[in-house]
Amino acid sequence: MIVIIDYGMGNLRSVQKAFEKFCSNVIVSSSAEDILKADKIILPGVGAFKVAMDELKKRGLIKPIKDSIEKGKPFLGICLGLQLLFSESEEGGKIRGLDVVEGKVKRFKEKNGLKIPHMGWNRISLKFKSSKLKVIDGVEDGSYMYFVHSYYAAPKDKNVILCETDYGVGFASGVHKDNVYGFQFHPEKSQSAGLKIIENFVKL
Amino acid sequence: MLTKRIIPCLDVKDGRVVKGVKFLNLRDAGDPVEVAQFYDREKADEIVFLDITASFEKRNIMLDVVKKTAETVFMPLTVGGGIRNLEDIRQLLKAGADKVSINTAAVKNANLVKKASEKFGSQCIVVAIDAKRSSKDRWEVYVHGGRTPTGIDAMKWGKIVQKMGAGEILLTSMDMDGTKNGYDIELIKKFSESLNIPVIASGGAGNMEHICEAFTKGKADAALAASIFHYKEYSIREVKEYLNKRKVRVRI
After folding, report:
1. How far apart are CA B141 and CA B130, in angstroms?
2. Of A25, A27, B40, B220, whose CB neighbour count within 10 A is largest?
3. A27 touches chain B (CB under 8 A)
4. Under CATH, which number does the domain A2-203 receive?
5. Half-sphere exposure of residue A35: CA atoms within 13 angstroms, side-chain side
6. pLDDT per residue over B142-188, tens digit each?
7. What is the pLDDT of residues B54-98, one digit of tens each?
8. Residues of chain B contacting A123 with CB distance shorter than 8 Å
9. What is the ipTM of this complex?
10. What is the pLDDT of residue B155?
11. B96: which chain A residues are within 8 Å (Cβ-Cβ)?
């Protein structure tokens, strides 16, 4: 069973539909029990970092999420879901995250006519060979993915960077640490290249 | 580098595509879901549904269309037309829209933009501005599908909604819309250079050169077009190849 965590933010339907293309047992849930029973967990999300952390806390989901990650269940954070994996964010002050991956979430700097949010299709450059890491198996280096975000994650340990994208700065558009994966772009909105990642994750 | 986006827009009334989309190879060219699937295959960068359903009772049909589209199309979907409040936005996002486009309701109550972006995130709040030139370098905001003048200066309004938390501006020139004579480049350029959020150029695209100009001269982040795609005058791919040759970065 794949559980998509519902903490009241963002459009989960398209995430669910994308996973259902490859797996018949996908549920959207905000119950700790479901998260603990899940084989694989997705943390999606759009919106503000602080609100998201507050919502997770309110629903008592932080501990089940961390416990599941510790147990080694494949875990995928998408967009804000990737950012929440980090230690802290400067969005709305200095807010603590789940602290699964060490590092900070920062805002893009408005300079040289750079528009914020970073919205649209941009390339990813893979830091792993796609044949070496199952989640990106068959994903071409330089593939275009769909992004919508104003903040980006800066991992302390550069070895966790799965792929990078250039938007004024080179930033980590994908991270990987053991059983944890995070993507800043929306694989569920990135047509065939994104769906490939979802398929790979389902098959992990 | 971020690429420039090409966005086909469909007018949908009572759940059906209007302005007669004339594709070959479509079982039902009036079905927005099928048309969206077609553009997904064509690698459009996003798609916009503009709901022009007049009667309030029939508005739920759009939710159903959005649901069905989100089930089969894995690209960003924006829905606009007739959105009045947070509940309308919530329902559309829940049905599977990635962004909503607000126009008249934002002019009536700018606070809606603020509340919506706080609640759902700026990334999904597009403010649509219908602008009509009133003098050499001034444009006025129109509402109700371009029928009602407001007296509001469009550029000022753009800055206000940016401050209120809009994630993007869908900027339509009322003067050029439907003419196929090209975008109002001066309008687009003024907005693109004055705002920090992305600007989608709309109104007037009649050929590939027009789309190219929206990017090279107008500095737009995305270009929206309807009839030139619907009538298959140009395919999305053709337009992108044209742009690519002219050094406009696009996803091919």
Report:
1. 6
2. B220
3. no
4. 3.40.50.880
5. 26
6. 999 888 999 999 999 999 999 999 999 999 999 999 899 999 999 99
7. 777 777 899 999 999 998 999 999 999 999 999 999 899 888 899
8. 1
9. 0.92
10. 98
11. 11, 13-14, 17
B71 to chain A: nearest residue by CA?
A17
pLDDT value at position A56?
A: 95
Contact flag B167-A148 (C-beta cutoff 8 Å): yes
Does any CB of chain B come closer than 8 Å to the CB of residue A138? no
Residue among A13, A110, A147 whose CB faces B96 most closely:
A13
Q: Which candidate from A11, A115, A191 shows the least CB-CB separation from B74? A: A191
Separation CA B32–CA B37 (nearest Å):
9
Tokens 């607000």 belong to residue: B102
Chain A closest CA to B147's CA: distance in Å?
31
The number of residues in chain B equals 252
Name every residue whose Cβ is closer than 8 Å to that of residue B75 and which is 6 or more positions away in sequence.
Answer: A146, A189, A190, A191, B39, B40, B44, B45, B46, B47
Angle between helices B60-72 and A12-20 (to 10 degrees): 40
β-pair partners for B100: B79, B125
Higher pLDDT, A199 or A51: A199
More reliable by pLDDT, B5 or B21? B5
Closest CA–CA distance from residue A124 to any residue of chain B (Å): 10
pLDDT attached to residue B57: 76
- Helices B208-216 and B236-245: crossing angle in degrees, nearest 10, is 50
Domain ranges for chain A, please list them: 2-203
| CA proximity to B163, closest of B190, B192, B127, B131 | B127
- pLDDT surpasses 50 at B24: no
Indicate if the alpha-carbon torsion angle B51, B55, B57, B61 is positive or negative: negative
Rounded-to-integer distance, Cα B46 and Cα B10, Å: 12
pLDDT of B20 strictly over 70:
no
Identity of residue B57: E
SS3 B143: strand
Q: Which of B94, B118, B198 sits opposite A13 (nearest CB)?
A: B94
- Tokens (6 digits) for A171: 């930033």
Distance from CA of A46 to the nearest CA of B (A): 7
- What pLDDT is recorded for position B66? 94
Mark whether A110 is an active-site residue. Answer: no
Catalytic, B11? Answer yes
pLDDT in tens, A77-103: 999 999 999 999 998 788 999 999 999
